[in-house]
Amino acid sequence: GDSVTQMEGPVTLSEEAFLTINCTYTATGYPSLFWYVQYPGEGLQLLLKATKADDKGSNKGFEATYRKETTSFHLEKGSVQVSDSAVYFCALSDRGTNAGKSTFGDGTTLTVKP
Amino acid sequence: DTAVSQTPKYLVTQMGNDKSIKCEQNLGHDTMYWYKQDSKKFLKIMFSYNNKELIINETVPNRFSPKSPDKAHLNLHINSLELGDSAVYFCASRLGQGATDTQYFGPGTRLTVL
Hints:
Low-confidence stretches of chain B: none
Oligomer: heterodimer
Distance between the termini of chain B: 34 Å
Structural class of chain B: mainly beta
Radius of gyration of chain A: 14 Å
Largest sheet of chain A: 6 strands, mixed
Low-confidence stretches of chain A: none
Order of helices and strands of chain A: EEEEEEEEEEEE
Strand content of chain B: over 45%
Number of strands of chain A: 12
Distance between the termini of chain A: 41 Å
Number of helices of chain B: 0
Largest sheet of chain B: 7 strands, mixed
Number of strands of chain B: 11
Shape of chain B: globular
Mean pLDDT of chain A: 94
Helix content of chain A: under 10%
Helix content of chain B: under 10%
Strand content of chain A: over 45%
Radius of gyration of chain B: 13 Å
């Protein structure tokens, strides 16, 4: 079946540091890939997505590139802020028999200190 | 306007009680979900409906029963509550079952069973 493996947390960084959160996946079909962010006390919201190989999703300074050859979708940001402190979830949505079902990673908690 | 809303936001109850959580989306989406998030932030899909039809029913105790009176509403009824049911429950919706579709999450219902 489908699965998503993301970097274990928690991750603690100083403000303006570079962020990478690794995400790799296995899928039976040709999935779309997503990063969702969950701020404290809130529901998940879409951060960015990519729907085909070599696509780059970007939003709020975050980027991730769909790498089919390495089955990866790593999240990066050049300079994090305190307000980026949240839980980040990598997810995939497959086609075919798994249509309609998303598979989420376990989440990575990021804390950014001033 | 809130896209996906849930009531109540907090629910504190005794073991053995029966409770319901309601969800409504005003996005015109066809597909809705219930997820359970535990204290470690792991997100687990429970159910999904597409146009009022149950399409995903993961391994969930049959004390949990979803009901979709129309495609804008998806409620979750829980019988004989147990300590292990304490979690945050998220409702989500999605345009359809397309792999590229983003999921939109509600703010969550924090259930505490005493």
